[in-house]
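Recall that a protein's primary structure is simply its ordered list of amino acids. Everything else, from secondary elements to tertiary packing, is in principle encoded there. The following example makes that idea concrete.
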Amino acid sequence: MRKIIYPVVIVFGLILLSAIPNNKKSESSIQGVWELVDRYSYDGHQVTDTIENTNGYRQIKMYSQDKVMWTRFVPLDSVEWFGYGSYYTKDSFLVETLEYGSSSMMKIIDTMRKFKFKLVIDQNSYSQITLDNEGNPMFSENYRRLE
């Protein structure tokens, strides 16, 4: 009888454990809340300048499964900046398509709705790098994960 009970208990336990959802995000998931840390300017493939956030400047991006929303706060500027849209990642690229935004952002969205970046990401940071027509980096925004 023991020979039958032990395997049944083990199999039952494994079934229960496999039913527990895994809420951990994969290391390369962009889903979450991110804060802009700094920006880089490039010459060719070399970083030539680092622009730190100063004087209370904050930019936050939030990614859900397929939507993106961002906001920017510049204390010395009365212009509001925010945007909302959809996104996807594929082959180390991040593509954001903005649907609407603040009045200042709508002026940009009216001329260019889709933004494509090279994506470099790990568990707690990511960079979205704007490339020129030849595929060389021009500048990047560098984020750290808040949540």
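The longest strand covers residues 32-43. The domain at 24-145 is CATH 2.40.128.280 (Lipocalin).
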